[in-house]
Amino acid sequence: MASFTRASLLVQLLRLALLSMLCISGDAFTPKDYSDALEKSILFFEGQRSGKLPPTQRLAWRGDSGLSDGSSYHVDLVGGYYDAGDNVKFGLPMAFTTTLLAWSVIEFGSSMPSQIENARAAVRWSADYLLKAATATPGTLYVQVGDPNNDHRCWERPEDMDTARTVYKVSAQNPGSDVAAETAAALAAASIVFKDSDPSYSSKLLQTAMKVFDFADKYRGSYSDSLNSAVCPFYCSYSGYQDELLWGASWIHRASQDSSYLAYIQSNGRTMGADDDDYSFSWDDKRAGTKILLSKGFLEKNSEEFQLYKVHSDNYICSLIPGTSSLQAQYTPGGLLYKGSASNLQYVTSTAFLFLTYAKYLSTNGIAVSCGATTVTAENLITQARKQVDYILGDNPARTSYMVGFGDKYPLHVHHRGSSLPSARSHPGRISCSDGFQYLYSGSPNPNVLVGAIVGGPDSNDRFADDRNNYQQSEPATYINAPFVGALAFFSGKAASGTLK
Asked: Residue ranges per domain, the chain?
């Protein structure tokens, strides 16, 4: 009798588990959920702000920081974003973040009417900083503030930091084509965002983008070689600088429609990665994103100049879609795209964004992708992107949201200095460099909620350790969130209109 009871209980538990899985899969997230996640994904950037915070600042536990950045070098480098959980302003990921935030607004801004002003403010915060970095000194681009080696020896709030705010730059003598061309891309993409709402600012962004691109192209070299230990291994340019040059030219062409940039793309494309197929898209490697961006020209104009990019965009798609004969990507048992153990969700958010952007281009032109015997439609891409987005928001084996502050369960021990230390409001006294480590090693949840932050995410078996010391999984970054803004805007808009299948 006891055996029968245990068996019956087990059956009931299995039924409940199955019911639970059904309840949170498929149509788990409502229009309100996607809209809420979108708002929070943009709000996160306020937690990463450096500089003098505006009266409109909503994450009130943050305060002013880095107010003298650049002053010892007689330049104004106040502002911009801290890239992740530390207090350094790294130029390469900040510029990439700006480009992807701007691209999110360009493609899907119409799907986020209630958040468009906040999204523009997030773009402008870094665009303003990049403008200063590009125009402060002729023939120079300032690409970093803060010595990362010294910064990482401390665990302190940005409001308290007393480590050297060393400034790093690239020039004709010490080139940095990668970071300069990405900065050009960011300024050009941002110029499109403000073309209608602030034409004079837009024009200034575009003109500066052109000058920075010329500088990047004329004085070729990797900033990793010029700046070495200041940027490596943190944001070393592993893919070289050719991909950024093509990416930068592509964005300036899109912003300006200047035929000279089209000629540049035609002349240099094959030597700058157009023929290379790779399924990752990140702050380091721009090849896949460039192909999707340029494929728009072929799809809309059936233009021979861009045909190559449509072909390679299709190859990229085919390498990622499960069920095709050319699948190269790895997925976890729970269905998450898996590229690497450190900050894997950066690849997930960027890929989901490219899926949706390409789906938009395909749908507009009534075209599908042929992957051998398999046809991949725009709807297939949307479905695959939604699986990735929903996984991040909580539809996963761990039943946890990887966006801080979203859902009932999310990471509480985020690897982030400002979030993990008591705020300056609750603890006005300074917390020194070494005293802060007690908070890093504490088992208590972060006292300040970094709302909207997407952390590095689970491992290849869907396992996640909510541990502040496990930075590979628990550290957020601006470039994880930036493309997710566009993806959430898409699904928020589709869900609100009732057209999400």
From this structure: 28-497
- The reply to whether 117 belongs to the active site is no
Matching CATH number, 28-497, of 3.40.50.150, 1.50.10.10, 3.40.190.10, 3.40.50.720: 1.50.10.10
415 an active-site residue?
A: yes
- Report which residue type is found at 479: Y
Per-residue pLDDT of the chain (501 residues), as tens digits, is 333 344 444 334 333 343 333 333 445 799 999 999 999 999 999 999 999 999 999 999 999 999 999 999 999 999 999 999 999 999 999 999 999 999 999 999 999 999 999 999 999 999 999 999 999 999 999 999 999 999 999 999 999 998 999 999 999 999 999 999 999 999 999 999 999 999 999 999 999 999 999 999 999 999 999 999 999 999 999 999 999 999 999 999 999 999 999 999 999 988 887 777 777 899 999 999 999 999 998 888 877 778 889 999 999 999 999 999 899 999 999 999 999 889 999 999 999 999 999 999 999 999 999 999 999 999 999 999 999 999 999 999 999 999 999 999 999 999 999 999 999 999 999 999 999 999 999 999 999 999 999 999 999 999 999 999 999 999 999 999 999 999 999 999 999 888 887
- Cα–Cα distance for residue pair 368/408, rounded to 1 Å: 38
Task: Based on the residue annotation, tell me whether 312 is a catalytic residue of this protein.
Answer: no
> Coil, strand or helix: which one is 445?
coil
pTM over 0.90: yes
Q: What is the phi/psi pair of residue 142, to 5°? A: -80, 125
Q: Which two tokens stand for residue 196?
A: 């209608």
Q: Which two tokens stand for residue 50?
A: 């450096």
The first and second tokens of residue 11, run together, are 């059956």
Residue from 276, 305, 435, 466 carrying the catalytic annotation: 466
User: 253, 312, 415, 416: which one is catalytic?
Assistant: 415
Candidate list 39, 159, 243, 475, residue with the active-site label: 475
Ramachandran angles phi, psi of 187, nearest 5°? -65, -40
Residue 466 · residue 439 · CB < 8 Å: no
In this structure, are residues 143 and 227 in contact, taking their beta carbons and an 8 Å threshold?
yes
